[in-house]
Amino acid sequence: TFSSMEMQSGSSSSSEKMHQDKPVQVTIDGREQQLQPNEVRLIRQDSSPHSKVICTLRRRGNTVELRSAEHGLTVKVDGHNVQVLVSHDYRSKLAGLCSNFDGEQTNEYEGPREEIYQSP
Question: How far from chain centre, in Å, is Cα 55?
């Protein structure tokens, strides 16, 4: 399984937005991947070419997408926004950034210890 994802633009300035014609550095569980424009890459459990695929990275324009069918998870990042899509199997099992995913808008600001955050 994977536990973390980090992304950096290939530009020299950290304040520059991700450009669709430059490579993007993506780090998944400490393993760095350089993703070129319009590239699709299978991320495997280990370095063996026959090991299990844990997720797919896809680059389209300014958007990098990580998708794991096994975990019912898709994360899309464009340098400004992050979109997290999860399977309904996670209903009422999330906390924090994704709320608790129970379908109740009043619970959208519930944190990991069931504390309620105020709207920004």
Answer: 10
Q: Which amino acid does the sequence have at 3?
A: S
Closest CA to 73 of 92, 59, 54: 54
Condensed to tens digits (0 to 9), the pLDDT of residues 59-72 reads: 998 899 999 999 99
Ranges of H-type helices in 14-85: none
pTM of structure: 0.71
In whole angstroms, give the CA distance from residue 60 to residue 85: 17
The radius of gyration computed from the CA coordinates of the chain, to the nearest angstrom, equals 16
d(C-alpha 6, C-alpha 89), whole Å = 25
Q: CA distances (Å), 55 to each of 24, 95, 120, in order?
A: 17, 22, 33
